[in-house]
Design brief:
- It is built from four helices and five strands, in the order E-H-H-E-E-E-H-E-H.
- Strands 1-2-3-4-5 form a five-stranded mixed beta sheet.
- A hairpin with an 8-residue loop joins strand 2 and strand 3.
- By secondary structure, it is of the alpha+beta class.
Length: 146
């Protein structure tokens, strides 16, 4: 589908927030995320791509959050990236849009010299990411400080 994919802009922040929080039960989360992502796009800490056939409604999207990580053992690159907000309207699934959008995110990471990219996935998306070379790493943990 050439010509339907475009970069995400700060004006797309609410659309990106809907991709991040598609369930109506999560709607209260959208304004805070939209404000953050608009600022992150302006600062170059978020890169995103949207598919909008004929310049119309956005039917798919994917983003890349750029994280200032610091150099680590074996990797002098101070940045990491995380693929986020991969979403495709149900009527447009299985047409290669998510794959193309994620590949554009990976190219954006390469252009910035980033060598480590992570993501979280659902069972439905696992095959897509494995096909792009991602491998499962079951060591992620989280602590919520209060």
């Amino acid at each position: 589908m050439p010509g339907v994919i475009r970069p995400a802009l700060p004006a797309d922040a609410l659309t990106l927030a809907r991709h991040r929080y598609p369930a109506e039960t999560d709607a209260p989360e959208r304004p805070v995320y939209a404000a953050w992502v608009a600022d992150a796009l302006e600062r170059g800490r978020y890169v995103g791509f949207l598919a909008a056939p004929d310049g119309g409604e956005v039917v798919a999207g994917a983003g890349l959050t750029l994280l200032e990580w610091g150099p680590s053992r074996g990797d002098p690159q101070p940045y990491r990236a995380r693929v986020v907000n991969v979403w495709t309207h149900p009527g447009w699934r299985r047409q290669g849009l998510a794959r193309e959008l994620v590949m554009r995110c990976l190219q954006a990471a390469r252009e910035r010299g980033i060598t480590r990219v992570s993501l979280g996935t659902s069972e439905m998306g696992r095959g897509l990411y494995e096909g792009l070379g991602f491998r499962a790493r079951g060591t992620e943990m989280e602590l919520v400080l209060k």
